[in-house]
Write a structure and sequence with these properties.
This protein is an alpha/beta fold and about 375 residues long. About 25% of the residues lie in helices and about 10% in strands. An 8-stranded mixed β-sheet has the order 8-7-9-1-10-11-6-12, with helices on both faces. Strands 2-3 form a two-stranded antiparallel ribbon. Helix 3 packs across helix 4 and helix 10 packs parallel to helix 11. The N terminus is likely disordered.
């Protein structure tokens, strides 16, 4: 039973007991790591193996062997809903420091995951202890309840070790076209066919729903989506709720939070309760909808937002093209681990995906490339 939620089971009929999906929906919030959010579900009995005790050094001198570690331990239970209370550093060079203890990493270098507090303290001195606070189930009730009652992944990594726009580009196009930082920003740097363009060409229904009063950031970032004929595909959250309850969601939907006006995107230092309420609102619309049994709801984060995690990002990511980042970075390493929750009436309660990658593993990079691969494309770096 999903505590605090009105649950809805799959209906009977000729197809009863046969899992199928008519509509898939992604919610993409921003900027939280798995370590900071998984304690919100790790205290539930079947997900305890995701919990971890993590220590981080405070002084950068420890990386050269010239200082004491002065370690800060992860603390379960955040002081307030806006932890960390300052925006962490999350550019490509900052994430290198978080992973390797240096801003310049070598190809194939193994991550130590010991530079998160050092990176945060470099910008916000004397705030290291705050940075290591994590959320409890009571602090993230919707997130926790969905993770406990459906499925959560303990091995879902961002596409690239950096911030928002390159990771969102990867999600929609399968590449960031060599971009590793949000700024300097050039929308034409992301001029590549998106999954939405491919779906349009195949006459498969799709929509982008946006909980904001400004234009969809997905559309702003992607020149192939600027076509005015695509305008009907971009809708607000109220339209989503109406479509979900009527069972009229398209085959593929993407839902954006509000980043700026009343931010519910979970990116520090924004209020996590607002993001949790957004997840609750989406769940209520989907689970009470006429097509609940045919809907797959997927909730994840575009990147870690500079927040601490303890699992090194794996190598072995297939470079999507010939584009290269700083110092010849080949995009062969995934980004920092982030939460991912899968919700469907066909998913067994308490399911945890935490296996090692195999050649059959679906990653956040591989699935959009499979869809985009339906059509040929030329990537411009």
């Amino acid at each position: 039973m999903l505590k605090g939620f009105e649950t809805h089971t799959a209906r009977g009929g000729a197809d009863a007991g046969k899992p199928f999906v008519r509509s898939s929906l992604w919610i993409f919030v921003r900027g939280k790591s798995a370590t900071q959010t998984l304690p919100a579900v790790a205290q539930q009995s079947r997900i305890q193996r995701l919990a971890a005790v993590v220590f981080e050094p405070v002084e950068s001198a420890v990386f050269s062997g010239q200082g004491a570690a002065n370690e800060v331990e992860v603390r379960i239970g955040a002081e307030n809903r806006c932890i960390p209370q300052e925006n962490p550093q999350e550019r490509f060079e900052h994430v290198n420091l978080q992973l390797f203890g240096t801003t310049q990493s070598a190809a194939g270098q193994q991550s130590t995951m010991q530079g998160f507090v050092v990176s945060y303290a470099d910008k916000h001195p004397d705030r290291g202890a705050e940075f290591m606070e994590c959320y409890t189930p009571d602090q993230l009730p919707a997130f926790s309840a969905l993770a406990h009652n459906f499925a959560i992944s303990g091995a879902w990594y961002a596409s690239v070790s950096t911030q928002t726009w390159p990771n969102r580009a990867f999600f929609h196009t399968g590449t960031s076209m060599g971009q590793v930082d949000d700024y300097p920003y050039d929308p034409f740097a992301y001029d590549a066919p998106t999954i939405f363009n491919v779906l349009q060409s195949q006459k498969i229904s799709w929509a982008v729903y946006n909980d904001s009063h400004i234009t969809s950031s997905t559309r702003l970032e992607s020149p192939p989506l600027w076509d005015l004929l695509l305008e009907p595909h971009f809708q607000n959250l109220e339209a989503f709720e109406k479509d979900a309850r009527a069972g009229n969601l398209p085959a593929y939907s993407f839902l954006e939070p509000d980043f700026l006006v009343e931010p519910n995107d979970a990116h520090p230092p924004h209020d996590m309760l607002l993001a949790d309420r957004l997840i609750w609102r989406v769940w209520q619309a989907v689970s009470s909808g006429a097509n609940w049994e045919g809907t797959l709801l997927l909730i994840t984060y575009d990147e870690h937002g500079g927040c601490v995690d303890h699992q090194p990002p794996p190598y072995g990511a297939a470079p999507p093209d010939d584009c290269r980042g700083p110092n010849g970075f080949a995009f062969d390493r995934f980004g920092v681990r982030v939460p991912m929750i899968a919700v469907s009436p066909w998913i067994e309660e308490g399911t945890v995906f935490a296996r090692r990658r195999t050649r059959h593993t679906i990653t956040r990079r591989s699935w959009p490339l499979c869809v985009i691969g339906w059509t040929s494309r030329a990537t411009r770096c």
